[in-house]
Specification:
The complex is a heterotrimer.
Chain A: H1 9-35, H2 37-62, H3 71-84, H4 88-92, H5 94-99, H6 108-130, H7 135-155, E1 176-177, E2 180-181, E3 186-188, E4 191-193, H8 195-218, H9 221-231, H10 233-238, H11 243-269, H12 279-292, H13 297-326, H14 333-351
Helix pairs in contact in A: 1-2, 1-8, 2-8, 2-11, 2-12, 2-13, 3-6, 3-11, 6-11, 9-11, 12-13, 12-14, 13-14
Chain B: H1 3-35, H2 42-63, H3 69-96, H4 105-126, E1 131-132, E2 142-144, E3 147-149, H5 151-173, H6 175-185, H7 187-192, H8 197-223, E4 225-226, H9 232-245, H10 250-274, H11 284-298
Antiparallel strand pairs in B: 1-4, 2-3
Helix pairs in contact in B: 1-5, 1-8, 1-9, 1-10, 2-3, 2-4, 2-8, 2-9, 3-8, 5-6, 5-8, 6-8, 9-10, 9-11, 10-11
Chain C: E1 5-16, E2 19-30, E3 34-38, H1 45-52, E4 60-65, E5 68-69, H2 75-81, E6 83-85, H3 98-105, H4 114-119, H5 122-142, H6 157-169, E7 175-179, H7 187-202, E8 206-210, H8 214-220, E9 223-228, E10 231-236, H9 238-242, H10 245-252
Parallel strand pairs in C: 3-8, 3-9, 6-7, 7-8
Antiparallel strand pairs in C: 1-2, 1-4, 4-5, 9-10
Helix pairs in contact in C: 3-5, 3-6, 5-6
C-alpha cells in the first residue's frame, strides 16, 4: 500500500482497528485474571497455539504439504530447552556437572534461538527424504516420524539417560528477563501481574512477531513460490522454481515456529514429558488451521484461539450442566473436547472446506465472459 | 533353546502377526484401489470390532454360561462383523462420498476426523480403560517342531488364510469382483458398462470392514486386551504392509502383511537379544515405521505395485 | 557458415516400455526463428518437448542451448538456463491472480530470500517493485493488462493461453517453447496470437511451437520439422514440407498422396 497520510479512510480504519486490538490484547489478561487464573492460563496457551498454528500453516497452508507429525518440532524445542535449563543433564552426566558447577541455566535469549535452530535442523533432516512424496503418502510418513520421535523420547532413558523416558524432565527454569522471574509474578508499571499474566504478555508478543513474519513471507517471492507449488508443482518447476529447496524451506521454517513455541512451553510448564507430544496434539493444531481457514493468516489465528478457548468454556459449562441434568458427569469434558474436534474436522470438510474465515476470493471475471471451454480434444502429440 | 529354535519360533510369531496385518491391510488396499483414499479410520474399525465382540461375549456368557469358548468366539465375530460393516458404510456414505471429487487433502482430513469420532464414541461407550478380553480358547502350549503356539494363534493363521483365499476367489471369479476391478481401473467406463460405482464402492468398504472386524476379534484374543486406542498402531502397521506390497494390489497386501509380520518379529526378537533387552520390544513399533518410511521413500510402488510416472 | 543456433539438439531417443516414442530426433533452431514442430496425433511432439525441457529423461541425446551443452535432467535448471514453456493443457496457478502468475515467472531471475523478505530490506522492496512492474508490463504486452487482478481460473480460455505466454516470457527466456498455443481458439484469436508471436520474435526471442493448425504453422513458421511415430519424416520450409508425399501420407493416408 503506497498511500500516505491519515486522510485515507481505509488507512484510518486500519489504524483504529489495530489500536483497538492492541488495547484488547493488553487488557485481556487483567480481565481474565479477575475471572480466575485458569482463564489466564488458557489465554497464554492460546498464544502458544497461535504460534504453532502459524508454523503449521506455512507448511500446510502456504506450501500445501500435509504434515501430520508437526508436534515433533514442538517436542524438540521443548526438550532442547528442558535439557539446557534444568538439572537433568548435570544430575545424570558427571562430566557435564563438572563443566557447569552452577548447573545448566541457559538464558532465554540463547535458548529460544537454539530451540529454533535445532528444530529447524530436524525439519530439514526429516523433510529432505520425504518432500517429494505425494500428499497422502507425505502425511502418513510425517505421522510416522512424529511417532518415532515420541517413542524415542519415551525410551531414551537407557543406556544413557537423555530424555528421562516417560517421567520426563522436571525442574525446568522459568523465563528470566533481567531481574524478572516469570514464575514469581512482578509489579509492572504499578500493576501487580501474576506469573501467568507475565507469560501471557511474553507469548502474545512472540505470537505477534510470528504473525509479522508470516505476513511478510506470504507477500514475498518465497510466498508466491510456495503458492505456485501448492497449485501446480510441475508448472512451478517449469518456471524455474527449485521445488525441493523451497519445500524444505517451508518445512524448516514451520519447524522453527514449533521449536520456539516448544521451548516457551517447557519454561512455562516447568516440566516436559512425551505424552504432551502425541499424534492427537498434531491433529489439534491441524484442526485449528483447517477450521480457521487454511492458508489465511487471520483465519488461522481465529482457529487457534477458538480451539484453545472453546474447550475451556466447555469445561466450565458442560461439566456442571451435566451434573445438574443427569446427576453426574456422563461424558468427561476431555472426551467431549475430542469428540468436538472430530466432528469439527468432518463438518468443516463437508460444508466449509475453506474454513470459517478463508482468504477473500480475488476478483472474478465479469459476467458475460464465457466460461473456459472444456479441454480441447486430447491430442496425444 | 538354540538359535535355530528361536528363529523358528520368531517365524511363527511373525506369521501370526503377519496374518493379522494382512487382513487389515486388505481393507486399506481395496479402498485405496477403488477410491484413491487412505481410510485413516480403518484401524478404528478394527477397534470397534474388538470392543463389540467383547460386549457380545460378555452378554452371551452372562445369559448362557454354558456356551463353550469357541462358541463365544463365534458369537463375538458374528456380532462384530455387522456392526463394523454398518459403521463403515455410514462412514463412506456420510463422510467420504461427498468428497470424492474434492482435492486430495480433504478426504484425508475428514478421515482423521472420523477416526477421532470413532475413538471418542468408543471411549464413551466402553470407557477409557483397557478392558480384558477373555481367554476363549485354551491357552495350552502346542508344540510344532521347536516352536510353541496356542490354539488361538493357529486359528489366526488358519482363519486368515481361508479368508484371503475366499477374497481372491471373490475378486477373480465373481461378478462383484469383476465390477470391483473395473471400477478400480476406470469408474466412468465401468459405469457405462452398467456397474453401479456407488454400490461397488460401498461393497468394497463393507468387505474391508468385515475383515477388520475379524482381525479385531483375533487381535483382542491374542493380546487379551481391548481399548479405544487399540486400532491406531495395528492400523498404521497394516497400512505399511499395504504400501509394502503395493497399494491397490490385493495379493500385494497379503504379501506385505506377512512380510511385515516376519520383519517385525524377527527384527524385534533379535535386536532384543543383541542389546540385552535394551532396544527390544519398546522399539518394535519403530520397525514398522522405519519400513514405512523406507518403502515410501525408496520404492513407493511397493513390491508388487506398478510404477506410475508423472505425465506433463 | 556459422549459424547462431539457439537450440541444437540431436539424437534424442526415448522408449516407454514397448513404445519407441522418439527415435533419433534432432532440431536446430536459429536465433529469432519461429520453428514449428508438427505431426499427427501420437507422433511424439509433446514427448520431445518434455525431453528438451527436462520433464522426461531421454535414453539418448545431446543438448545445446546457445552453443553451451546442458543436461535436461532438472526442469527448474532448464528454465533457469533459458527455455520457458507452456503446456498443452493449460497449467496456470488457478487460484492466484493473473498478475501473481506472471510474478511467479520472475522468480527465476530474482533472488530475494526469506530473511530479506521478512526484514523488508531496501533491496527486497526494490526487487518486489520491479517484479510487480515488469509483470504488469508483460500482461499489457500479451493484451490482458486489465485482467491482472482477476483469479486465473476465471479468465476466458483465450486469455488463459495468453497469460501462460506472459508467465513464460517473465522468465526472460532465450527459447520460448509453446505446446499447442492455438488449440481451442477461433479464427480471430488465432490472428491475434500470430501477431503476438511475431512481435515476440521481433523483440529477440526465439520460438519453438507445436501446432496442429497447419494454416497457422505455414503462415507463421520459418522452418518446420514433421514427426511421425517418433521419427523425423521431413524438415524444411513450410512450402517444402506441405507438398512432401511422406508428410501427406502420414497425415492423411497413402490414398491422398497425389500420384
Amino acid at each position: 500500500m503506497a498511500s500516505f497520510g491519515g486522510t485515507d479512510p481505509h488507512r484510518r480504519a486500519a489504524l483504529a482497528a489495530t489500536a483497538l486490538i492492541a488495547v484488547v490484547l493488553l487488557v485481556l489478561p487483567l480481565a481474565a485474571g479477575w475471572l480466575g487464573p485458569a482463564w489466564v492460563r488458557t489465554l497464554a496457551f492460546a498464544a502458544l497455539y497461535v504460534m504453532l498454528a502459524l508454523g503449521l500453516n506455512i507448511v500446510v497452508g502456504f506450501a500445501g504439504l500435509l504434515d501430520l507429525g508437526y508436534i515433533a518440532f514442538y517436542a524438540v524445542g521443548a526438550y532442547t530447552f528442558a535439557l539446557l535449563a534444568s538439572p537433568h543433564l548435570t544430575d545424570n552426566f558427571p562430566s557435564i556437572a563438572r563443566t557447569f558447577p552452577d548447573g545448566l541455566h541457559v538464558p532465554i535469549w540463547a535458548a529460544i534461538p537454539l530451540g529454533a535452530a535445532i528444530a529447524a535442523a530436524f525439519g530439514v533432516l526429516l523433510g529432505a527424504p520425504v518432500l517429494k512424496l505425494r500428499g497422502d503418502y507425505l502425511a502418513i510418513v510425517t505421522l510416522g516420524f512424529g511417532e518415532i520421535i515420541r517413542i524415542f523420547l519415551n525410551n531414551l532413558n537407557a543406556p544413557i539417560n537423555l530424555t528421562n523416558g516417560p517421567q520426563g524432565i522436571t525442574l525446568i527454569d522459568p523465563v528470566r528477563i533481567g531481574p524478572l522471574r516469570f514464575d514469581h509474578g512482578a509489579s509492572v508499571f504499578g500493576l501487580a501481574l501474576s506469573s501467568l499474566q507475565l507469560y501471557y504478555y511474553l507469548f502474545t508478543a512472540l505470537a505477534l512477531l510470528c504473525i509479522l513474519v508470516c505476513v511478510r513471507l506470504q507477500d514475498s517471492r518465497l510466498g508466491r513460490a510456495w503458492m505456485a507449488i501448492r497449485e501446480d508443482e510441475i508448472a512451478a518447476k517449469a518456471m524455474g522454481i527449485n521445488v525441493r529447496n523451497v519445500k524444505l524451506l517451508a518445512f524448516g521454517l514451520g519447524a522453527t515456529f514449533g521449536g520456539v513455541s516448544g521451548s516457551m512451553f517447557a519454561a512455562f510448564q516447568g516440566f516436559v514429558s512425551p505424552e504432551s507430544f502425541s499424534l492427537m496434539e498434531s491433529v489439534i493444531v491441524l484442526s485449528m488451521i483447517v477450521l480457521g481457514g487454511l492458508g489465511h493468516i487471520p483465519g488461522v489465528i481465529l482457529g487457534a484461539v477458538m480451539l484453545s478457548v472453546f474447550p475451556e468454556l466447555l469445561r466450565h459449562t458442560v461439566g456442571p450442566m451435566q451434573t445438574q441434568l443427569f446427576g453426574r458427569i456422563l461424558i468427561d469434558t476431555e472426551v467431549l473436547r475430542m469428540l468436538l474436534y472430530g466432528v469439527a474436522l468432518v463438518l468443516i470438510m463437508l460444508y466449509r472446506p475453506k474454513g470459517l474465515w478463508p482468504a477473500p476470493q480475488h476478483g472474478v471475471a465479469p459476467r458475460g465472459v464465457a466460461q473456459p471451454p472444456p479441454m480441447p480434444p486430447a491430442a496425444a502429440a | 533353546m538354540g538359535s535355530w529354535d528361536t528363529f523358528v519360533q520368531q517365524v511363527f510369531n511373525g506369521l501370526v502377526l503377519g496374518s493379522l496385518y494382512a487382513l487389515i491391510a486388505l481393507g486399506y488396499t481395496m479402498v485405496y484401489g477403488i477410491v484413491n483414499l487412505i481410510n485413516f479410520a480403518h484401524g478404528d474399525v478394527l477397534m470397534v470390532g474388538a470392543l463389540t465382540a467383547l460386549s457380545a461375549v460378555a452378554l452371551a456368557h452372562g445369559l448362557a454360561p454354558g456356551i463353550p469358548g469357541w462358541g463365544l468366539m463365534l458369537i463375538g465375530m458374528l456380532a462384530a462383523v455387522p456392526v463394523c460393516v454398518l459403521i463403515s458404510l455410514l462412514m463412506e456414505r456420510v463422510a467420504y462420498r461427498p468428497l470424492r471429487n474434492a482435492p486430495r487433502l480433504a478426504p484425508l482430513i475428514t478421515a482423521i476426523g472420523v477416526s477421532i469420532l470413532l475413538q471418542t464414541l468408543a471411549m464413551i461407550i466402553w470407557g477409557r480403560n483397557h478392558r480384558t478380553f477373555p481367554q476363549l480358547l485354551s491357552s495350552d502350549p502346542i508344540a510344532i517342531g521347536p516352536a510353541t503356539v496356542t490354539v488361538t494363534k493357529l486359528l489366526v493363521v488358519a482363519l486368515s488364510a481361508i479368508i484371503m483365499v475366499a477374497l481372491l476367489l471373490l475378486v477373480q471369479r465373481t461378478r462383484l469382483g469383476r465390477a470391483m476391478r473395473a471400477t478400480a481401473e476406470n469408474p466412468r467406463v465401468a459405469a457405462l458398462m452398467g456397474v453401479n460405482p456407488n454400490a461397488v464402492i460401498a461393497a468394497t468398504f463393507a468387505i474391508g470392514a468385515a475383515l477388520a472386524a475379524v482381525a479385531g476379534v483375533m487381535y483382542a484374543s491374542l493380546y487379551s486386551v481391548a481399548h479405544f486406542y487399540m486400532g491406531f498402531i495395528p492400523g498404521l502397521k497394516a497400512f505399511t504392509a499395504a504400501v509394502l506390497g503395493g497399494i491397490g494390489n490385493i495379493p500385494g497386501a497379503m504379501l506385505g502383511g506377512i512380510l511385515l509380520g516376519l520383519i517385525e518379529a524377527l527384527g524385534a526378537g533379535y535386536i532384543d537379544q543383541f542389546s540385552d533387552g535394551l532396544f527390544g520390544s519398546n522399539y518394535q513399533d519403530v520397525f514398522a515405521f522405519i519400513v514405512l518410511c523406507a518403502v515410501l521413500i525408496l520404492r513407493p510402488s511397493g513390491l508388487l505395485g506398478e510404477r506410475v510416472a508423472d505425465r506433463a | 557458415m556459422a549459424r547462431d543456433l539457439v537450440l541444437n539438439v540431436s539424437g534424442i531417443s526415448k522408449r516407454f516400455g514397448g513404445l519407441q516414442a522418439l527415435q533419433e530426433v534432432g532440431l536446430r533452431i536459429e536465433r529469432q526463428q519461429i520453428y514449428g514442430l508438427i505431426g499427427p496425433n501420437g507422433a511424439g511432439k509433446t514427448t520431445f518437448f518434455n525431453v528438451v525441457t527436462g520433464l522426461v529423461r531421454p535414453d539418448a541425446g545431446t543438448f545445446q542451448l546457445e552453443g553451451r551443452a546442458y543436461e535436461p535432467t532438472s526442469v527448474h535448471r532448464v528454465a533457469a538456463a533459458g527455455i520457458a514453456r507452456t503446456f498443452q493443457n493449460i497449467r496456470l496457478f488457478a487460484e492466484m491472480t493473473a498478475l501473481e502468475n506472471v510474478m511467479v515467472g520472475r522468480h527465476v531471475r530474482t533472488h530475494c530470500g526469506a530473511l530479506a523478505s521478512v526484514l523488508r530490506t531496501r533491496g527486497a522492496r526494490r526487487e518486489e517493485e520491479q517484479i510487480r512492474q515488469r509483470s504488469g508490463e508483460l500482461l499489457e504486452y500479451v493484451g490482458i493488462g486489465r485482467l491482472g487482478h482477476l483469479q486465473a481460473r476465471t479468465l476466458s480460455y483465450g486469455d488463459q493461453r495468453r497469460l501462460e505466454i506472459a508467465r513464460a516470457l517473465a522468465t526472460d527466456p532465450k527459447l520460448l517453447a509453446l505446446d499447442e498455443p492455438a488449440a481451442g481458439m477461433n479464427a480471430t484469436e488465432k490472428i491475434d496470437l500470430r501477431a503476438l508471436l511475431e512481435r515476440i520474435r521481433a523483440d529477440g526471442i526465439t520460438i519453438l511451437l507445436i501446432e496442429h493448425d497447419v494454416k497457422l504453422v505455414m503462415g507463421l513458421c520459418d522452418q518446420v520439422t514433421v514427426l511421425d511415430e517418433g521419427r523425423i519424416i521431413k524438415e524444411g520450409s513450410p512450402g517444402q514440407v506441405q507438398h512432401d508425399p511422406a508428410v501427406i501420407e502420414a497425415y492423411l493416408g497413402r490414398a491422398h498422396v497425389p500420384v
